[in-house]
Amino acid sequence: MEQVARKTGWSDQWDHMRTPAPVPPAGERAGAEERTADLCGISLMHLRGDGTRLERPEGGAGCRHIILLVQLDGSCTVAHRQSTVHLSAGDVTLLDSERYFTLETSTGSSQMLGYIPFAEVMYGIPSAALPSPRRMESDDALAALAAPLMASLAQQMNRLDGEGGRCARQLLVELTRGLINRQRQRPVLVEPIPDPRVRHFIDAHLADPDLNPANIASGCNISVRRLHRIFSTTPWSACGWIRKERLERCRRDLTDPALSDLSVTQIAFRWGFNDAAHFSRAFRSAYGESPSEARRAVDAPRYADIPRAVLRARLEESGSARP
């Protein structure tokens, strides 16, 4: 295991890590400390910050990872393009290293992050099933296991090597897989549009590529200003809601075996998109993978059913297997 590194301030790039970590915008470096280590191929980061804001850009070089983030002390806010998560001590969330997010910490807060290779934790799980970040509270059974484990790793970062490190690594991978499955079983509760007329009109006209605030307002016999006031009580704008609903319908159809004869473009156009490239970018931004990847993942074999030799060969191809 690598020697723990201590720094004051944030580096622009963490070259010693296997994937780019969140970095702060220029000028926001004070009051932060990082400790990093390698756990048999899993990058660990213990972050301490006083009012620090970090930003993780879209995409990234190197291998894709699932980031297990545990709030150890204080609080932080993780903002994704489609959701905002507030974490208190003991809370847990999962992040995709290829998806944009920001992390804002409170004074005296600390977090522990584990970068687990995507291929190991998502094998046999449809990638489209990975939801946007959400809070798993400390009273959740699996979160209650993750929090003390990560806290212990934060204290033992320079001591877990050999058999102990390998056991801790395996436990971390399996726990992360369990948390992903737990999230899949708990759909995100999205605050509905308070006016049923607006909600029903949008649902009935999602396939219309010309659907916009003006014709929604006209169809519901309200002003555009009134429409925007209705949406001001939700996390969405009118256009943002339309886009979200269209993407959800497309993802549902892409993962439906009964619609496998339809092309990705046909499904996109079916729900009001009129530009295949724009749809692909919007889908990747929302779900962290391309529409084609989401469709292929549906038929992925279960992790446990793959012979160990075959699994190891595939992990080595992705660069995720340890020596």
Automatic annotation (TrEMBL):
Residues 196-297 form the HTH araC/xylS-type domain. SMART domains: HTH_ARAC. The keyword Zinc does not apply. Keywords: DNA-binding, Transcription, Transcription regulation. One of its GO terms (molecular function) is DNA-binding transcription factor activity. It comes from the Bacteria. InterPro entries: AraC-bd_2, AraC_XylS_family_regulators, Homeodomain-like_sf, HTH_AraC, Tscrpt_reg_AraC-type_HTH. Residues 1-30 are annotated as: Disordered. This is HTH araC/xylS-type domain-containing protein.
